[in-house]
Design a protein that fits this description.
The complex is a heterodimer of chains A (224) and B (542).
Chain A lengths: L19 H10 L6 H15 L4 E2 L6 H9 L22 E5 L7 H10 L5 E5 H6 L21 E3 L6 H17 L12 H4 L7 E3 L5 E3 L3 H8 L1
Parallel strand pairs in A: 1-2, 2-3, 3-4
Antiparallel strand pairs in A: 5-6
Chain B lengths: L1 H8 L5 E5 L2 E5 L5 H10 L4 E9 L4 E8 L7 E8 L6 E3 L8 H12 L2 E3 L38 H5 L25 E5 L11 E7 L2 E8 L7 H5 L4 H8 L7 H16 L5 H29 L3 H21 L9 E2 L2 E2 L7 H24 L2 H7 L7 H7 L3 H6 L6 H4 L20 H23 L20 E8 L4 E8 L7 E5 L1 H12 L5 H11 L3 H5 L1
Parallel strand pairs in B: 2-5, 6-7
Antiparallel strand pairs in B: 1-2, 3-4, 4-5, 8-9, 9-10, 11-12, 13-14, 14-15
Helix pairs in contact in B: 6-7, 7-8, 8-9, 8-15, 8-17, 9-10, 10-15, 16-17
The chains are: A alpha/beta (224), B alpha+beta (542).
Chain lengths: 224, 542
Amino acid sequence: MEVKDIYIRNMKTGDFKENEYLEEYLKELRANGVNIAVQKLDDLINWGRSNSVWPLTFATSCCGIEFMSLGAARYDFARFGWEVTRNSPRQADVVFCCGTIVHKMAPVLKRLYDQMAEPKYVMAFGACAIGGGPFKSSYHTVMGVDQIIPVDVYIPGCPPRPDAMIYGMMQLARKIKMQEFFRLPKQPSVESRHCEGDSPKQSIDETGLLRSATNDEAKKGGEQ
Amino acid sequence: MKNLENLFSQLPFATVEQKENIYNLTVPKENLYEVASFLRKNGFDYLRDIVGMDYGDTLGVIYSLSSVENPEIILSLKTTTSDKEAPKFDSVIDLWDSADLYEREAHDFFGICFENNPDMRRLFLRQDWRGFPLRKDYDASPEINPVPFENENLAEMETLPAIDVMNADDKFEKHHTVFEKGEYVVNFGPQHPATHGVLHLRVSLDGEVIKHIDPNFGYIHRGIEKMSEAYTYPQILHLTDRLDYLSGTMNRHAVCLAVEKGLQLEVPERAHYIRTIIDELTRIASHLLGWGAMCMDMGSITAFVYGMRDREKIMDIFEETCGGRLMANYGVIGGVMADIHPNFQKRVKEFIPYMRKMLKEYHLLFTGNPIARGRMDGIGYLSREKAISLGATGPVGRASGWSNDTRKIEPYAAYAKADFKEMLRTGGLTFDRYIIRLNEVEESLKILEQLIDNIPEGDYAAKTKAIIKLPEGEYFQRVEGARGEFCVYINSRGDKYPYRIKFRSPSMTLVNVLKAIVPGTKIADLIMLGGSLDYVIPCIDR
């Protein structure tokens, strides 16, 4: 199925390289047809949501400096409506996970994620957040944030350039745009294909949230 | 020098070896405190670092000392113990204030206990961590220490471990926790944008006045020192950039110089010049970010945007020549990775007048601003003696009047060829620490101006062997990072991997400074005082 209607700020589907996973996602969402009234309302809400994503300022190391560059004058993510960085997870829509996550930080990140309101998204910035990066052989590094929380977008680089970060942000905005807001709990796991192999299996629990199967604590946190 | 020999002659149980400006003093474990206090009384008032060592069958510590009068002389005080089960040394906490965190670090990594130091908690790792990671027999299998899913227990975090009270007067009996019962403690961090990283401060308050703080590190501890023991020297270089990412090229420079010294490698003059210029550009970028972040801590977003805007100019220069923006990845052993871009000199020459103009604007915008001055004046006093005792190098120490610029003390690369002043102030207040960074930017511009047209022709890197093996021995190198003295200590056993590598983090002492200057100030000033010290947490945690 061709993706025809996901555009973000005049950027057409063809402008992006990675469309395959969105096409599959869309196929899954549209499998049983769509109620036209609900879909129109969805479109309106998602237009608003995708243009005003509030990130949580969560930076542990080097990538945080590039994140600051992204917020400053030249790259200026305010152009895309992302500039309202929140310091409280209660007000944030997305965690920009900038930097290495280590053993001591892992529960803190987990807790921050659990405190965020639905719908929530995670972006893994840089090699460390994706899979341990240059610190892969360390005794104290978590090999990727997807071991702790589900990830929507992975942005490679060490650290990624702000341009790459903007590209990743656009990918997330497109994903938000095609979601069905009123049926959000049925969100399929996009990242499960991304992180095959050593990371824990993702499952959809009764609340529809993505949780790691190995972590019972996570489920408890989601139900509260 | 004669003076020094005189001094050593009064220490009968110490063996002295000299290698250039480094004196190695080996003493038996029993006499450690005696020798240390003797040295402290005779001028060695700056404890640079404490290096924990695992020699295989013995454990040891190395105290790196210097005196403020003769900063070019480095004294390494060494001692060992064969007791690997419960290694103990005397604490020097009452001689140097900086010893506190260093001793805790050695305890965390090697399990060495320092008697009479009441605070023998782990510094970086969780209190429930099993094993001592930097010991050679450490088992790193993830089953022993799995990724935790529970936050660390705060009560556990603040409880001081029960120590064998050696003194009869029960000196430490009553202090079993950091905080008294009923004290009002506020958690600050680790997830907080104003901590400049993931620092966790526990602040005890009386109303809005801070009584004392307890910093917790380790939220970004990646174990770089342990990893380096399994990496070759060119591989280690990539990790050094990620220690203090804002002065990454300087950190890299230090390791390059240390290895080159060991290999007795002749580095081309061109490489020296390029490295110096890149270092100074990094320093400007770092100070601009430090300035912007400090101003933002005081509520001025404009200053932050201005600082970042001008920093981007330097990032452009780096991108052209080094290929990376933040991580320049430029220095290699023997020189630099690639020759400079044809536009490099032109770009730098355009940048110098631009930056001078912008500095004037910064002063107009912020330095003279009555609101900003009202926040900064008269707050956060750090005396010169305290700065030396705490080992607060870099702009913070210089703002208190301690002349500690490594570029002047031990000129490396092309610094001897440039004519520049070491910025010194005597106030020791927040405003001094603020203004000294902007002044240092000016001095850095002067250095750039002198060097940029005189880059000699020639090779940009010396040829090295494919496998670099450092001859057996100890190597020490210090450079001036953007935050202070960055040192690297390499212990080689003739292999292509180091036996032990230790980085001295200038930021760690700055957190100790924060601990010393905040009691009595208002909680609203805590953020700004942290901003004025401008520490980088990944450098502390390593």
